[in-house]
Every structure is written in structure tokens, then in C-alpha cells.
Amino acid sequence: MKAATAEDKRWTRKHLLGLEELSADEIRFVLDTASSLKEVSTRSVKKVPALRGKVVVNAFWEASTRTRTSFELAAQRLSADVIDFSESGSSVSKGETLIDTARNIEAMGIDVIVIRHPAAGAAELLSRSVRCSVVNAGDGAHEHPTQGLLDLYTIRERFGGKVEGKKVAIVGDIANSRVARSNVWGLTKLGAEVMLVGPPTLLPRSFEQLGARVTHDFDSVIGEVDVVNMLRVQFERIKSSQFPSVREFTSMYGLTWDRFQRCKKDVFIMHPGPMNRGIEIQSDIADGPQSGILQQVTNGLAVRMAVLYLVTQVGG
Ligand code: CP
Fold first, then answer.
1. Phi, psi torsion values for 186, nearest 5 degrees
2. Following DSSP, what letter does each residue of 231-272 receive, concatenated?
3. Bridge-partner residues for 269, per DSSP?
4. What is the distance between the alpha carbons of residues 24 and 109, in angstroms, rounded to a whole number?
């Protein structure tokens, strides 16, 4: 890979907190770095020494399969030491605050904290309280920047390097979705046309201010989009007044076989996971030939290697 250097002005950020603050060039630079690093995972010895001697802490205050595992594997592939911190079983249960917890972990000499937390703004708060790099792995309904980047990477890969001009529908529980917000920022910066689709209770008109088109009628846009990114219905965050019955949601906003057949022939199907099979997406579509769902996961590893690599090259 072509390494970023101290003189390389294409990446100057010590933290990755969201895609809102990144420029299009910075996003492209992360994706290009991920492209170079993806090859490492195809080697028989899947390791490079880029972060030898560095320490990465995975600090997750919420459940995760994909993000947690891929950050851990990404750090290992770059030869960093990795520590896994979970709220449960820690002194958080005795009342220790997020900041005190992070400062105590940092005092052991670490270089990066990867944080997932239910509170929007937690990663930003942490970045102002510690000296090491902070990477946001999802903060409340605010942002999930590495998911946004891996989704961009996967769309770019699918369409021969081109994101500009692609029509992308992001469908479902938008209001509770940090994935939707990071996707909107990233996709619009790279020139895609974003349509947000969902029931009015889960998709306020205010989302138009992010530069996306808002519609409550999935069927009116289904035939014109190049990508359909189905979101998980976050039952744990939804208030009952916001949600019709599951059956009604699926009939209006689910990616059913009938709807899939009205999509463009080469439509690309995405989902960040975890999926509610049979609710927002039908199983045979999720597992079918036009699904990029597992490619998203594969690309997430390369993207997270790139992010860990880049933030650790920036001093100060
Ligand atoms: N897409 C995503 O963030 O999945 P996990 O919650 O399993 O990390």
C-alpha cells in the first residue's frame, strides 16, 4: 500500500467522529487506503506491521457483532495489540463515568479508543477528554461513520468506482438510524442522489435539510433506484406510538418479492445488519445474487484497517 506520511495533507484528523465533518476528498482518501489494505486479508499470512507497538481499545457500551469483531480483526491485521472493554463486568456498574473510565484506560498507554455508546455525542465528548485517538463506532442515533464508509466502499466497488449520479434509497426506520445519517452525509458528498423512505413517524421531513429527498411512498421510487439499502427496524428504540403493526410496516416498507421484481434489473441490495428477516427484507432477497450484504461486512474490515491506520499517523 502507499502509506500516508506526516507530510501527507490528505488526512490530518486524529479522530473519526462522523462523516458530516469530512470533505469528499477525505472520504475518497479513506476509501482508497481501504482498497490498498483489502489485499492483506487475501494473503496466507494476513498481517502487516503498520501498527506494531500500538494499542487499540474496543470500548462498547452497546451490543455489536460486525463492528466490534471487525475493529478487533482490523487492529490485529495491522499488528496492534487489542483490548476488549465491555461495560458489563467493569467498574461502570459501580458508577464510574465514561470519561473517568476512558482516562483510566488511557493511563495504561493506549493509542486508539474505538467507542460505541447509546448517547449521541459520546465519541465527541471523549475526544475532548483524552489525548489518544477516538473512533466513533456508533453513538446513539447520531452517526456510525465506519458503516457509512463501508457502504460507500461497497457501492463504489459494485459500480466500477462510481458513486456520483447513483440513486440510493435508504428505507425504513430512519429516525433512529445513525447508519442513515452517516450514509446521507457520505453519499451526498460523493455526488449520489439519496432518497429516504419510511413512515412519517420514523422519517420526519426535517431530513430534507441533510440534502436527501424524503418520501413516505416506497412504491413511487422503487423502479428508479440503483441501490436499495434496507435498515433494521430498531424495535428497542421505537416507541409504540411511532410504529404501525409489523405486518403493516412490511406491506408498506418491506423489501418483499413483489417489490423486488419492480426494481431495476441490476439493482443492488444492501443492509447494514443485523437483519429482521421477513420484516424489512425477505430472506431470499437478502441471500440472493443481487445482495451485497456480506460484501459490506468483508469491506468493513478493510475500511476499519484504513481508519485505524490513518488516525494513528496523526500526532498532537
Ligand atoms: N452494522 C452494525 O453496526 O452491526 P453491529 O451492531 O453488529 O456492529
1. -65, -45
2. PPP-TTT--GGG---HHHHHHHHSB-HHHHTTS-TT-EEE--
3. 228, 291
4. 33
- CA of 92 from ligand 1 middle (Å) equals 22
Query: Shortest CA distance to 229 belongs to which of 160, 286, 308?
Result: 286
Q: Which residues form the pocket of ligand 1, taking CB atoms under 6 Å from any ligand atom? A: 64-68, 138, 144, 147, 272-274
Do 24-144+297-312 and 146-294 agree at the fold level? yes
* pTM as predicted: 0.96
Please write the tens of the pLDDT for every residue from 173-231. 999 999 999 999 999 999 999 999 999 999 989 999 999 999 999 999 999 999 999 99
User: So which residues are the catalytic ones?
Assistant: 66-67, 94, 116, 144
- Nearest residue to 306 via CA among 53, 144, 60, 71: 71
Is there a contact between 85 and 60 (Cβ–Cβ < 8 Å)? Answer: yes
Give the domain 24-144+297-312 fold: Rossmann fold (3.40.50)
| 89-137 per-position pLDDT tens digit | 889 889 999 999 999 999 999 999 999 999 999 999 999 999 999 999 9
The domain locations on the chain are 24-144+297-312, 146-294
146-294 maps to which CATH number?
3.40.50.1370
Joined together, the cell numbers standing for residue 147 give 458503516
| Ligand 1 atom closest to residue 138's alpha carbon, by position in its atom list | 3
Residue pLDDT, tens place only, 298-315: 999 999 999 999 999 997
Spatial distance between the Cα atoms of 202 and 218, rounded to a whole number of angstroms: 14
